[in-house]
Amino acid sequence: MKKKVLIFTGSPREDSYGASLARVAARGVKKAGGVAEIINLTRLKLNPCQACDRCRQRGPGQCFQEDDMIELYPLLKKAKAIILVHPVYWFTINAQTKIFIDRWYAFGGDNYVSFKNKKIGLILTFADSDLASSGAINAIQAYKDMFNYLESDLMGIIGASLQDRGQAKKDTEHRRQAYELGQEMAR
User: Fold this and answer.
1) Does the predicted TM-score (pTM) go above 0.85?
2) Residues 84, 88, 94, CA angle at the centre, nearest 5°?
3) For residue range 103-142, what is the model confidence (pLDDT) as tens digits?
4) Fold observed for domain 4-186
5) Where in the chain are the domains?
6) How far apart are CA 149 and CA 81, in angstroms?
7) What CA–CA distances, in Å, run from 75 to 17, 144, 145, 176?
8) Low-confidence residues in the chain, pLDDT < 70
9) In whole angstroms, what is the distance from residue 84 CA to residue 152 CA?
10) Helices 17-31 and 173-186 meet at what angle, rounded to 10?
């Protein structure tokens, strides 16, 4: 059976550099014998978590809110690996991605076993010279804490810095890293 890798993109720009790197990672997944599905979070209607705890009584991934997250819960539960791809906004995880992650709270009723040992990859894009000055380091630390708590396996982190228009077309290093991350996630 082929390993299913979900790739979630959180950029509001469909032609973003992150979306391009997500497609490259998907090619890596396929090359390694896996199946990749790219889901653009910005096309979905996702409401913020209401912290009502009804999901704790209803069961894992059983939020009362009737939005597009209902369709993502079973996908998240079944996937063997997840890659999150998004830009860094205001020194951390962007809002589109954070709302999605906050809704994972609905898996807490079973102590998040759906995420235990799940492979996780990150591709963060930012317009600054390095991880620290861009704030990507804050997002990375949040992810490290989050996936440690969930007992997930953080397999790789790509920080793709772009500062000049047209730089993405010339960049081969981040594309190579994304392809290799995709391959690793499918193994």
Assistant:
1) yes
2) 70
3) 999 999 889 999 999 999 999 999 887 888 888 999 999 9
4) Rossmann fold (3.40.50)
5) 4-186
6) 17
7) 25, 22, 23, 27
8) 163-169
9) 13
10) 40
